[in-house]
Design a protein that fits this description.
about 400 residues, alpha/beta, Rossmann fold, six-stranded parallel beta sheet
């Protein structure tokens, strides 16, 4: 039986959290596989029913976490007698005791737009911190035996950045698991959705951060309202534009101020965080999904939106085109006017909206967490076999010298 150790200590929010919630059950369902998972607090209860999964819950600040991963985790992996390490949080172990697969899925390290954004906000400390993390992320690709990116577009970016080989294995989607919980949305959320009945309901699923480019989306609302004169609009956000209400250190003050300056307080609805298992109810309550992100690696909400039958308007990124194909409309990532125009075109044509929804639903079926897990296991087998071949070659070399 193979033993896979998964380091998911960094999976506390966003795509990292979505990844471990979905991939661990599918890996656990594969035959002849024992799994040990190092994970952050609060997630253990989600995986307790998986009999072949051993959970190690650790609460560590970010700085201590990286130090622990480099100094303490290798010994834990050895004691577990693991065969392969899956590092799921962008950073690899410098000296892994077993073959290591690195999942690299943070595009801000290679994004010129992100560094420019930080400078424009005078956040020079964050700029320096990101530069330092980028150096570690770049070295990590060298430390790992194999690096995997969630899309071909991002894998190509990493290859250009490092000069090293990076494989692309698409992240997945599991429609049955995503819609399994039939409980209604919280009453306060449901009430706010009911009050928007009859309006054009736009949805953007993300906690507040800079690279999701909230400001372009907000600036698109006045021209959109002008183009759809006479039709009420609501933009639903799964975050709140308040300090301390979002993961990380991103400051939403600029976005909050923009809402007031543009006079769109009656349009923007800040729902706050929605539990993942209830998100499908929110998607089904919306009319159009929008994302203005200026950098991305996969964008799980795009697949969730398409699977929920929503037409999609996305910023024109190679990753977005790879994920949505012809099932979405695209606009230049910093053009609120173009974003407004694309949304208005869909809103004016119910036939176009239906065709986009059908195309998106079909497109969403191309992504599978089950296939992703199988490919990760296949990659693990390749590394185990390669390790055995290297050990045999080394032994034969020693014997020939003797």
């Amino acid at each position: 039986m193979k033993h896979l150790f998964i380091n998911s200590l960094a999976g506390t929010a966003g795509g990292g959290l979505t990844y471990i919630r979905n991939v661990i059950p599918h890996l656990a369902a594969l035959p002849d596989l024992q799994i040990t998972v190092a994970l952050p607090p609060g997630l253990q209860r989600e995986f307790r029913a998986l009999s072949n999964v051993v959970l190690r819950e650790l609460q560590l600040p970010t700085v201590r976490r990286f130090w622990y991963e480099q100094s303490g985790l290798p010994a834990v992996i050895q004691r577990c007698r693991a065969d392969v390490l899956l590092s799921a949080g962008n950073f690899a172990l410098r000296k892994s005791p077993v073959p290591q697969i690195l999942l690299s899925r943070n595009s801000i390290y290679t994004s010129a737009d992100f560094y420019r954004d930080l400078r424009s906000r005078h956040e020079y400390g964050a700029w320096l911190d990101t530069q330092l993390r980028a150096l570690l992320a770049k070295r990590s690709i060298d430390w790992a035996d194999v690096t995997v990116a969630p899309s071909e577009a991002f894998a190509a970016e990493l290859r250009r950045w490092t000069g090293l080989n990076v494989r692309a294995i698409h992240h997945g989607f599991d429609s049955e698991a995503f819609t399994r919980d039939s409980s209604p949305l919280p009453p306060d959320i449901q009430e706010r959705l009911s009050c928007a009945e009859g309006t054009l309901k736009l949805l953007f699923v993300s906690h507040y951060n800079y690279y999701r480019n909230f400001e372009t989306l907000l600036r698109a609302l006045p021209p959109l309202r002008k183009q759809l004169a006479g039709r009420a609009i609501k933009l639903f956000l799964t975050c709140k534009l308040l300090p301390g209400e979002n993961p990380g250190t991103y400051n939403p003050a600029t976005a909050a101020r923009l809402v007031k300056e543009l006079g769109i307080s009656d349009v923007v609805v800040e729902l706050g965080s929605i539990p993942y298992h209830r998100l499908h109810g929110l998607y089904h309550s919306a009319d159009i999904y929008v994302t203005p992100a200026y950098t991305e690696t996969f964008a799980h909400p795009l697949v969730e939106a398409m699977a929920s039958g929503l037409p999609v308007v996305a910023s024109d990124l190679a990753v977005h085109r790879e994920i949505c194909g012809d099932a979405a409309e695209y606009f230049p990532r910093f053009s609120p006017e173009a974003l407004a125009e694309k949304v208005a075109e869909i809103a004016r044509s119910s036939d176009r909206s239906r065709k986009m929804a059908a195309a998106g639903l079909e497109r969403s079926r191309e992504f599978s967490w089950k296939r992703h897990a199988e490919k990760i296991l296949q990659l693990s087998d390749e590394l185990i076999e390669s390790k055995g071949s290297r050990a045999l070659d080394a032994r034969q070399s020693r014997e020939s010298v003797a």
